[in-house]
Design brief:
heterodimer; A: alpha+beta; three-stranded antiparallel β-sheet; 3 strands; B: alpha+beta; four-stranded antiparallel β-sheet; 3 helices
């Protein structure tokens, strides 16, 4: 493994989401709240979704973990806002494929900054960090 | 055992000279060192060290109550065993 690979893992946009997370916080009112943690490594996320008529109007998270897990949560909350539950679940499935190294159509998916996480697929030990927020979202809407 | 202890002492000395380094545990210790570097999460530390051929363990170490007591989410830990060599 080289430092070149590390550059693909720690892209600037990822570090920016880690240092300045978007949608960090909590929601009031009638919201879905889901907690998820990764007991072996200690990453933890609380995700809150405001869902009206099968549409995700708001998404916020709090949690603690490594740069990959927190950046992934930040990016996810950005892109699922305004999406239907079905669309969000499709995105989650596509994200899992991306983590397996499969080619996916970013533009069609409206993936925003998420493309920057592509490099994680080369680090098997870190994939579970990147998928934590998505798993929480899936658990929340199911 | 002497080899491992020497490595641990050497690592302690070097780690302590790094800015933002926090080392946990007593001065007199077994051949291991547990640390955190600034606000860098231990998983990120371990991935970067791995790229340099250094294997450490990062996370809870199955010791969540201790992490809570230390008031950290996770730590990085290097254990020294007989096969580990000092890089020349």
């Amino acid at each position: 493994m080289s430092f070149n690979n590390l550059d693909t893992l720690y892209r600037q946009v990822i570090m920016d989401h880690y240092k300045n997370p978007r949608n960090r916080g909590t929601l009031d009112g009638e919201v879905l709240t889901v907690e998820m943690n990764n007991p072996t490594c200690g990453d933890r996320i609380q995700l809150q979704l405001s869902v009206v008529d099968d549409k995700i109007n708001e998404a916020k998270f709090v949690g603690e973990g490594c740069s990959i897990s927190m950046a992934s949560a930040s990016m996810m909350t950005q892109v699922i806002k305004g999406k239907s539950i079905e669309e969000a679940l499709k995105m989650s499935e596509a994200f899992s494929h991306m983590m397996l190294g499969d080619e996916i159509d970013f533009e069609k998916l409206d993936f925003g900054d998420i493309a920057a996480l592509q490099g994680v697929s080369q680090f098997p030990a870190r994939i579970k960090c990147a998928t934590l927020a998505w798993k929480a979202m899936e658990k929340g809407v199911h | 055992m002497e080899h491992e202890q020497k490595l641990a002492d050497y690592a302690m000395e070097k780690l302590q000279s790094i800015d933002g380094m926090k080392i946990y545990g007593p001065k007199k210790r077994a051949a291991l060192v547990t640390f955190n570097l600034d606000d860098v999460h231990p998983h990120d530390v371990s991935t970067v060290l791995d790229a340099e051929g250094i294997a450490i363990r990062a996370g809870h170490h199955c010791a969540q109550p201790l992490m809570k007591w230390l008031d950290v989410t996770a730590t990085a830990r290097q254990v020294f065993i007989y096969i580990i060599q000092k890089k020349m």
